[in-house]
Amino acid sequence: MLISKSKLSRFSNLGLAQILMYLGILIILLWLFIALFAPILQAVGFLKNPTDSLSYIPGDSPSLSHWLGTNIRGYDVFSRTIFGSQAALKVVFLTTIISIIVGVPLGLVSGYLGGKVDKILLFFMDTIYTIPGLLLSVTLAFILGRGILNVAIAVSIAYVPQYYRIVRNHTTSVKNELFIEAAKAMGATPTRVLSRYLFLNVIQSVPVVFTLNAADAILVLGGLGFLGLGLPQEVPEWGHDLKEALPDLSTGIWWTTLFPGMAMTSMVVGLSFIGEGISEMFNPALRNKR
C-alpha cells in the first residue's frame, strides 16, 4: 500500500508535458521496434511481402488472411503500413542529422566571428527561411530525384536556417562571457573556443528543434510521396500509399487510407510529445508557470 501511494505521489508530481513526453517516447520506441523487426516478422511468415501485388485480390476487405485488407493494386495494407515505418525513420534520421551538421557549425562560426561573415551567412539563411519549407522540398526533390538520401537532402535544407539562427543567437550572447575571455587570454585558439567552450553552452536548445523538425519531416515526406516525388514506387511509404488509396474512397474502400494515415499521425504525435516535454525541461520559466 505504501509503494502504491509513493508511486501515485510521484506520478502526481509529474507535469503534463513530462507525461506526454514519456508517452511520446513509448510511441517512438514502438515504431523503432516495428521498423527493426519487420524483416524478421516477414521471414517467419507473420508479415506478407509488401511489394507482392500479384498474389492477392485487389480491394479485399480486412480479414484473417489480410488483417487490414488489400489496396486496389493488391498490396497487403498491413505489411505496407508496417514497412512504411522504415522509410519514415530513415528519412527523419538523415534529414535531422544533415540539417544539424550544416546548421550548427555555421551558426557557431557566424555568431563568434561576426562582421561580414555573419552578415553574408545571415542573408543566405534568411533567404532560405522565407521560402515555404514544403515548396522548397518539392523543388529540390524534383531536381535531385527519388531515393532516401535525395529526399533527406531536399527536406533538410528547409531546417538548416532554424538550427543556424538558434545557435548563432546563443553564440552571440555567450561569446562575451568571462569564461570565454579567460580562455582567449590563456591562448585558446578560435577552434578550441568554439568546440570546447561555446558548443556545449549553445547546443541546449537543439534537441527541442530536433524533435519538432523530425515530426515535420514525416509530414513533408508524406507530402512528397503523395505528389509522386518521394521514394521509388516499390518502396513502402505512407504518403505514396495515401495517394494510391485516394480514388478508393469513392468506391467505399476506406481501409487503404485509414491505416497509413493513422500510422503517420501516431509517429508525428509521438515526436511532438517528446518535443513538448524537452521544451519544458529546458525552459524553467515555462515549467514554473505551469
Description:
The chain is mainly α and 290 residues long. The protein has one domain (14-289): Orthogonal Bundle (MetI-like fold). Helix content is 73%, strand content 0%. It has 13 helices and no strands. Helix 7 (160-174) packs across helix 9. The longest helix has 37 residues, at 77-113. 38% of the residues are buried. Residues 7-13 have low confidence and may be disordered. It is a multi-pass membrane protein. It is found in: Cell membrane. It comes from Crocosphaera watsonii WH 8501.
Strand and helix layout:
Elements: H1 2-13, H2 16-43, H3 77-113, H4 115-130, H5 133-144, H6 148-156, H7 160-174, H8 178-185, H9 190-202, H10 206-226, H11 238-245, H12 255-281, H13 284-289
Keywords: Cell membrane, Membrane, Transmembrane, Transmembrane helix, Transport
Main location: membrane
Family: Belongs to the binding-protein-dependent transport system permease family.
Instruction: Quickly name the level 1 CATH class.
Output: Mainly Alpha
Q: Give the number of helices.
A: 13
Broad shape: elongated
Structural class: mainly alpha
- Tell me the count of domains: 1
How many β strands by DSSP?
A: 0
Largest sheet descriptor = none
- Residue ranges: pLDDT <50 for 5 or more in a row? 7-13
Q: pLDDT average, as an integer?
A: 83
Per CATH, the architecture is Orthogonal Bundle
CATH superfamily heading: MetI-like
CATH topology description: MetI-like fold
- Reading the helices and strands in chain order gives HHHHHHHHHHHHH
State the share of residues found in helices, binned by percent.
Answer: over 70%
Determine the strand fraction and express it as a percent band: under 5%
Task: Round the Cα radius of gyration to an integer and report it.
Answer: 23 Å
